[in-house]
Amino acid sequence: MPQLSRYSDERVEELLSELVNVLEKHKAPTDLSLMVLGNMVTNLINTSVAPAQRQTLARSFAEALQSSVREDNAH
């Protein structure tokens, strides 16, 4: 079941586009891009979430990520 967001699709797409543009500007390969994005997520959790909630949020984030990854052969 899709999750409802308090943010508009337009706002999400705008931020996503800007992040992609930065990675493309620096010609970051996939592994570096994933490292940077992972570090960003970790930093956000560690600096913006109460310590008692960090593990739960990280687990939920990981589960959401896993459920959104497609199993097709597109590359």
TrEMBL record:
<dbReference type="InterPro" id="IPR009857">
    <property type="entry name" value="UPF0352"/>
</dbReference>
<dbReference type="InterPro" id="IPR023202">
    <property type="entry name" value="YejL_sf"/>
</dbReference>
<comment type="similarity">
    <text>Belongs to the UPF0352 family.</text>
</comment>
<protein>
    <recommendedName>
        <fullName>UPF0352 protein ACH50_13390</fullName>
    </recommendedName>
</protein>
<dbReference type="Pfam" id="PF07208">
    <property type="entry name" value="DUF1414"/>
</dbReference>
